[in-house]
Specification:
This protein is of the alpha/beta class. The chain has 14 helices and 16 strands. The N and C termini lie far apart (81 Å). The C terminus is likely disordered.
Length: 485
Amino acid sequence: MDKRRLIAEALRRVAQRKLFLEYGTPFDHSRPFGKDNIGPYNWQVEFHNAGATYPERMMMAANRVGKTRSGAAETAMHLTGWYPDWWQGRRFDEPVDWWCGSETNEASRDIVQMALVGPVGQFGTGWIPAEALIGEPTKRQAGIGNVVDTILVRHKTGGISQCTLKTYEQGEKVWQGTSKHGIWLDEEPPMKIFTEALTRLLDKRGIMIVTRTPLAGVSEVVRHFTDAQDGSGIYVKSASWDDAPHLDEESKKRLAASYPDWERETRTRGVPLTGTGLVFPIEEERILCDPFELPRWYRRINGIDFGIDHPGAGVFLAIDPESGTVYLYDCYKARNETALYHATAMRKHGDWIPNAWPHDGHDRDKGSGEAIKNQFRQHGCYMLKEHAQYPDERGNNVNPGLDEMFEYMKTGRFKVFKTCRQWLEERRMYCREDGKVVRKFDDVISASRYAFVMRRYARPKPSETPIGSNSPVQPIAGRRRWDTG
């Protein structure tokens, strides 16, 4: 065999092991994207691992960020029973019966089918490894050629998994039938088909995965996810072009400029197309900024959302005293964690920074009987004396704080570091319905509102100059650095 044929054979074998090579190790965000660093991004890892506790998941993302890649890769894992070492999501230890859905036959062939098995004539180059495919996938009569109907996959236990590809244009009756272990819907279906698909999952406690770009706006299916109550088993993840290191800046600028104005935020940020109900209806580019080292004279304040019956969250703000510009430079969100965990997270940038907190901080913990705000204080957090509120008739009402934040955004005085992904993710889904703010998926944004409303208490980093020096900013001997209340 000559050298060219050997190279071609080596490349063919590499292409047939895509799942192992591209999803075995998560992407290293400290290194540039390249052939030796192409694993799943941190937001994709979060989405997959959420499957352990959330049977229904939606990835509402921009175009070209990797949402179809995520759906196809996870489908291939469940069909084969192969899971990488980093996997903490749902596992199936037996062969599975799976459905995949697309809008049309063309979309099924050109997107889902291509992702799972590769192009016709090169089956085995998609996310399902060639060694796991059993024979050629069967095809159906669909008015166009080469539309795959069923894929048989060898599960690692020795059994056989089955994956059937369906479309929404076939109608809801095609979605009736037997129980399934899982269903992946690429782009959202009509509500009737969605509910039929959900019904198929009941007996086997199956999982639902929806990957979509919200060009259809805030539909019934989207509302099913975004309006879900805590504890409902429903999870939503969003992603924008900024979350996809494989997209270079020049290509992003060129492509974004080619989109119509009314589609740009949806296609590049994953924001629902009908954005009239958004609380912050402003292009993300206008509020984003690159991270920079904060001068010590910038005034700092944090915001805490305690997460009594929802995820706890924290936000870190810095204020330029000359321009009044507010910078949101860090944030976090975590579910089912203790007061000690959250207090430790809130001290990461310094225990001298004041923390704003909501009215429910007065509530007492059921176990200790201690007010929640006092628990944080006991763990070393500098807690403001009063809960977050304006010093006038606006009080702690939600809308005044949001309205003032939006006014700062429009005038260029509220900036968000590009690294604050969780805040940006919530902002894309934070909306009003019938004039009222929908209080869902707003943990980090709520924390930022508390800090913003109480920014009058923000303070610069204390001087570290020893007492007795000639520094004009030395602390006064005997004065406490702050009043802990």
